[in-house]
Amino acid sequence: MIKNDLFLRALKGETVDRPPVWMMRQAGRYLPEFMEIKEKYDFFTRCRTPELASEITVQPIRRYGMDAAILFSDILVIPQAMNIEVEMKPNFGPYLPNPIRSQKDLNNVIIPDIQESLGYVMEAIKATKEKLNNEIPLIGFAGSPWTILCYCVEGQGSKNFAKAKELCYTNPIVAHSLLQKITDTTIAYLKAKVEAGVDAVQIFDSWGGMLSPTDYQEFSWQYIQQIINALKDRTPVIAFGKGCWFALQEMAKSGASALGVDWTCSARNARYLSGGRITLQGNFDPSRLLSSPKVIKQMVTQMINEFGKDRYIVNLGHGILPNIPVENAAAFVEAVKEYKV
Amino acid sequence: MIKNDLFLRALKGETVDRPPVWMMRQAGRYLPEFMEIKEKYDFFTRCRTPELASEITVQPIRRYGMDAAILFSDILVIPQAMNIEVEMKPNFGPYLPNPIRSQKDLNNVIIPDIQESLGYVMEAIKATKEKLNNEIPLIGFAGSPWTILCYCVEGQGSKNFAKAKELCYTNPIVAHSLLQKITDTTIAYLKAKVEAGVDAVQIFDSWGGMLSPTDYQEFSWQYIQQIINALKDRTPVIAFGKGCWFALQEMAKSGASALGVDWTCSARNARYLSGGRITLQGNFDPSRLLSSPKVIKQMVTQMINEFGKDRYIVNLGHGILPNIPVENAAAFVEAVKEYKV
């Protein structure tokens, strides 16, 4: 069905001529054509208008020809649908004016009807699939329950999410209730995305690496595992945990089709820790896209040599930064397409 | 000479009845007696007045009886002495109004005369040694050159120190010149501290874990190694790199007496990665001091069981947080003192 199925074949662990490539946050602020839309429409208008969300999703594909698209959206549409107010403040980031820090706060949190509250995402998927015209696969995504909890409790971004951790360690009952509500919502949400047409899903655990291995198991991983269990027979699942090198062994046994790794985990360590058989995705330091295009190409080639061309998806180790020159992003993608064993 | 030499014996790898204990940032904002001084004197007055710095240093020892004291000071006294303006803004943290981002900026950076610019630190050491009266050892410290560069280039704290990394990847010549100037200053500074009386030194690489293993080697570790080489025959050196699990193997061969690890690296991983012979220090999650005293004691006992009582120094995995109740910090220290094999 899909003409360029390199990404799906890598997820299955099949032998390929070169690895597929996409970039986390590839539909974003480093693109002039994205900035034009951003100037006209606010964040949630962009997310909620299928024509805008689908246009933003395909912008990087038109420019660079990645091997997969990822739907333009945000992980915080989930708490928003759960009756937690979420604002996107310019030059500040997400702001949740009524953070969840007690049983009383939690009582107002609902498990929403997905079509009613997040139907606009499904419409955006359908519009995007039409635009992509079966050329490449479309990825849907969600934040991990722990990462969503971080924002719900802290109320904004943070260096160490001290308030989120404080809730977990002083009131674990409330923390686990919130995590389970997020998990149940996320499972229903991702199932609806698959029905609407995404070809794979990725779970972003951006803040799992702030937890000790024991606390990671208790407050993050067990909920991600629930999501994988519920989705894995419907679609390939990619689990990405920033800073979660210590959990790769367990993650490899989860039923996920691939694991994302960040740039602090070398290819060798990532293969060793994950057992050497599962497909890995990553792990170029987003800041390293500030090097010259020539250096970027050398580093990408070396990265592929180190991971190996099979069971590997070329990506960054976290989202692309807003200040990356478009020609540097081009060099990243071109290096993969030019790769020869 | 020193009556309680548990800490120094652990640094030598000797067999002990129980491991020694201290806490990073133990002289700090969680202590009411510290807050009293903080209300009266601004940050640099506290650092520069030997009577105040020494008093603050011994406050936690009086209250809890740790096995080592660490001099109250700040890693940013080094750039300040190097002719880079450093302010401590209340409720904001460090602020450097003239960050170093070009060769022109770098031209104003000097390698200072230590006694002239940082003599107040040596006076604080002498005053502290008198107050400690040879009961326990005194630790001196410095930031790693990379961590100091992060602040010098970024101009303030940051989630990802994107500007610091940008300088390294777009203008490595300026970055390395700055790193070498910081290294030379730090070596002279730590040598002076040893002459003034500290019994060991710790190098804090708080932001090394933001670099890929290759970039860590180039922009952080090679400079830490220079410092270790220059100091190791004069005093025991502890190298602490937050998030630097991937470098433990190399760090273990450096001549450092001990390596600090954070809470994402389990005792088992830390022993394995560091080769099993070097003394390790850490690694309690500072946020976990928000658990109840009973839970803290159980977790500390388990942590010692996992690291083993020998070649081990009980500590946090990063600095203690301002909102930790004093009885919880007490539970942490007591659990170590009550430890029985």
The helicity of chain A comes to 40-55%
Q: How many domain units of chain A?
A: 1
Largest sheet of chain A: 7 strands, parallel
Task: Write the H/E string of chain A, N to C.
Answer: HHHHEHEEHHEHHHEHEHEHEHEH
Mean pLDDT of chain A: 97
Assembly level? homodimer
Strand order, largest beta sheet of chain A: 1-4-5-6-7-8-9
Write down the Rg of chain A: 19 Å
- For the record, the CATH class of chain A is Alpha Beta
CATH topology of chain A: TIM Barrel
- The shape of chain A is globular
Low-confidence stretches of chain A: none
Fraction of residues in β-strands of chain A: 5-15%
Structural class of chain A: alpha/beta
Fold and architecture overview:
The structure is a homodimer of 341-residue chains. Chain A has 341 residues and is an alpha/beta fold. Chain A has a single domain, classed as TIM Barrel (Alpha-Beta Barrel), CATH 3.20.20.210. Chain A contains 15 helices and nine strands. Chain A has helices at 6-12, 32-40, 43-48, 50-64, 77-81, 103-107, 114-132, 145-154, 162-170, 172-196, 213-231, 248-251, 267-273, 293-307, 326-337, and strands spanning 69-70, 87-89, 93-95, 138-143, 200-205, 237-241, 258-260, 279-284, 312-316. In chain A, the strands form two sheets. In chain A, strands 1-4-5-6-7-8-9 form a seven-stranded parallel β-sheet, with helices on both faces. The longest helix of chain A is centred in the middle third of the chain and has 25 residues, at 172-196. The radius of gyration of chain A is 19 Å and the shape is globular. The model of chain A has no long low-confidence stretch (mean pLDDT 97). At the A-B interface, helix 9 of A face helix 9 of B.
